[in-house]
Amino acid sequence: MKATISIPQHWGYPRFALEQRTEQGTILGLYYYPSGTELAEQFDDGWRYVLMPNKNSDEISYLKEDQIQPLTPEELFQQITAEIEFYQQQISILNRQLTVLTKGANNG
Fold first, then answer.
1. Domain residues of the chain, as ranges?
2. pLDDT more than 90, % of the chain
3. How far apart are the first and last CA of the chain?
4. Which pTM value belongs to this model?
5. In Å, what is the CA distance from 82 to each residue of 70, 86, 87?
6. Nearest Cα to 34, choosing from 55, 57, 9, 53?
C-alpha cells in the first residue's frame, strides 16, 4: 500500500519531494507555514525542507523553498551511477567472502 499525503487546497503545492536529491542534499522532510500565522509573519509563509547534505553525517539543514536548487539530469545521473558502482563493489566483496566461507565449510 502506498502512503498518501493530503495537502489543503489553499496551500501551494510543494516544489520538491521527499527523498529528492538536490544541490543542498537529500530531502528528508517538509513542513508548511500557512499565511496569517505567527510563524509565517516571523519567517514568511510557504514550504520549509529538512535536508541531509551528506548521508554519512548526522548534520541536517532547514531551508526555504527558494534556497534549494534541483540537480540537473546530468548531475543526478552521475550521483546515481556513482552510488550504483559503490554498491556493486560492496556486493563483489560480500560475494568473495561467501565463496571463502562456503569453500571452508566444504573442506571441514
1. 1-69, 72-108
2. 80
3. 47
4. 0.79
5. 18, 6, 9
6. 9
